[in-house]
Known about the structure:
The chain has three domains: 3-127, no CATH class; 147-346, Urocanase like domains (Rossmann fold); 365-551, Urocanase fold. 43% of the residues lie in helices and 15% in strands. It has helices spanning 3-10, 29-42, 66-78, 119-127, 147-165, 186-192, 204-212, 223-236, 248-257, 285-294, 296-319, 331-337, 349-358, 374-387, 392-404, 421-434, 473-485, 516-539, 543-551, and strands spanning 11-12, 15-16, 54-56, 60-61, 83-88, 91-97, 105-109, 173-177, 196-201, 218-220, 241-245, 264-265, 323-324, 363-369, 412-417, 442-446, 454-455, 489-494, 504-512. The chain starts with a helix and ends in a 7-residue tail after the last helix. The mean pLDDT is 96. Nicotinamide-adenine-dinucleotide binds next to helix 5, strand 9 and helix 9.
Amino acid sequence: xxxxxxxxxxxxxxxxxxxxxxxxxxxxxxxxxxxxxxxxxxxxxxxxxxxxxxxxxxxxxxxxxxxxxxxxxxxxxxxxxxxxxxxxxxxxxxxxxxxxxxxxxxxxxxxxxxxxxxxxxxxxxxxxxxxxxxxxxxxxxxxxxxxxxxxxxxxxxxxxxxxxxxxxxxxxxxxxxxxxxxxxxxxxxxxxxxxxxxxxxxxxxxxxxxxxxxxxxxxxxxxxxxxxxxxxxxxxxxxxxxxxxxxxxxxxxxxxxxxxxxxxxxxxxxxxxxxxxxxxxxxxxxxxxxxxxxxxxxxxxxxxxxxxxxxxxxxxxxxxxxxxxxxxxxxxxxxxxxxxxxxxxxxxxxxxxxxxxxxxxxxxxxxxxxxxxxxxxxxxxxxxxxxxxxxxxxxxxxxxxxxxxxxxxxxxxxxxxxxxxxxxxxxxxxxxxxxxxxxxxxxxxxxxxxxxxxxxxxxxxxxxxxxxxxxxxxxxxxxxxxxxxxxxxxxxxxxxxxxxxxxxxxxxxxxxxxxxxxxxxxxxxxxxxxxxxxxxxxxxxxxxxxxxxxxxxxxxxx
Length: 558
Ligand code: NAD
């Protein structure tokens, strides 16, 4: 199909759509796969704001501009299996010679030399059309809608319940800010874990979207109504979620005044970006949107001050007995810059709840059915339940997800798997494609929030035992391992989750098309990728990671 025919149906800004079915539009599945996943990231059911090519996470984009999006599509339609496409901050910039077991697409997003790596310099370049903020999976074309973070959020809340409430979240109130792309997973994750949830969000359209996709139960503009609903639910032990339109700082202030102390308090507003993410208290959403354009510096200063006030209230809640943790949006750092000197007096969610999973190479394994047929995901769910019956948490999750999660765009699934398990699942899926048990190929990828692929001192690598929180050699090694292993596309980004200059991280996606080539690539990539996480944590001195390193022979004898 030539580009103009293809464009009419699939690339009509802002109406992007991934082709489905078994007919190829690109020259092979190796290029059809990134083409479909790129368009899927920008599809209106998946992306938060396709008009601006924003997929999630504040301003996380899949392409730099509508022209750049068309350029990427045009390149993918022509790319051969002995070529690799270079994508620089959301724009196709060239092709290089490679080979059929090498990645088809090599992506670098938002990277700046460390001395210049800050929002101010980045925004200057962005305003001139030279850069794009790729977040994590937005710019690496493996965002799968809010489901992508749902399991991780569920596991985090459940781990919090296990640690502090003997695993029983009934009669517990969980309060958080933000109901956007990722943060919108919180209400469903909280109720799945058994808690009552109050989410505060300035943008009513965002809450409406969570209601429409069944992630959130109820919505109101009234603080009093929201308070009454959640207090009643807490008393009855009902797992209900409420989205309240408001500014999280203001609502926390009111809750403090009213003596309502949440059992668990966290935040997932887009605090990582004080200019284009967090909405300062005292401004309506519309006023904030306009100030961002007319006087970004003023917006930044107001946002920093508001974040300081917001964190001040969180610290006060902690004093009064709330379990408070940071949820990976860099709120503490910006609150500190805004004047709250005790901002780091509560910990991040990784050291609190997640890190032990990284010692076993566990992380957010995810896959998408390129056929577009939801039955393909149901088949893979069933196959995983059969293959890992002993993993009760995973089986429980897959059962709940198939019942409760509405697909957005191409049908997808996520579940956390570790070293050994990911390779086994990948080979199993490849066999299913080969034998025709699935309608079409799948792709397997992951979030960059994984065991070996990220350096982020206020999040994934916060408080490491050996103090190597800021060492970003590790995600680079992960990228190189996945490139030489033969992932179908790989990516390296700056600033995901916490903002420009605060993190570096790598992504990978691999095509599972039932071929022997795929099998060879799976054996390398789906082993090496989690292995780098174990190696990284073993090197930092964690006993369980050292044990796993030895068990899987990940180091040659000294
Ligand atoms: P998003 O931009 O889609 O949603 C954030 C929401 O916060 C928006 O809807 C916005 O209207 C709202 N908001 C902003 N300021 C507010 C305020 N003062 N009061 C109430 N609501 C406010 O972003 P997202 O994809 O949901 O991500 C949220 C944050 O979480 C980002 O900082 C992101 O980097 C981070 N993140 C964390 C994880 C994790 O695993 N912990 C994963 C991905 C993203």
